[in-house]
Design brief:
By secondary structure, the chain is mostly beta strands. The protein is built from no helices and 11 strands. Helices cover 0% and strands 49% of the residues.
């Protein structure tokens, strides 16, 4: 059983930045970030491989968001720059105990409780 705890959400103006953190209670393989806006389905944001050597992003955030990880701390980060109002959502981190990289939420084994990100215009 792996527990995930996100932090770092908040309110920011458009064009601003936030960094989300996700602390895991144990070692994980692929880590993903998803988000869910009110009335919408949960969507893939990005994922990072076990080593941190590979990262993948949704087209909507590519070039603005960066995922990194510190395996010594069992922590994954989501650096969000040039934020837009449409980035407003609850952001979730997820852990996949395998090394596959997937954009599908059902592939992930554990989920955090989510952290709210609100971008004002």
């Amino acid at each position: 059983q792996v527990q995930l705890v996100e932090s770092g959400g908040g309110l920011v103006q458009a064009g601003g930045s936030l960094r989300l953190s996700c602390a895991a209670s144990g070692r994980t393989a692929t880590m993903g970030w998803f988000r869910q806006a009110p009335g919408k389905e949960r969507e893939f944001v990005g994922a990072i491989s076990r080593s941190g050597g590979s990262a993948y992003y949704a087209d909507s955030v590519k070039g603005r968001f960066t995922i990194s990880r510190d395996n010594a701390k069992n922590t994954v980060y989501l650096q969000m720059n040039s934020l837009k109002p449409e980035d407003t959502a609850v952001y979730y981190c997820a852990a996949d105990l395998s090394d596959r990289i997937s954009i599908l939420s059902r592939r992930y084994d554990y989920w955090g409780q989510g952290t709210q990100v609100t971008v004002s215009s």
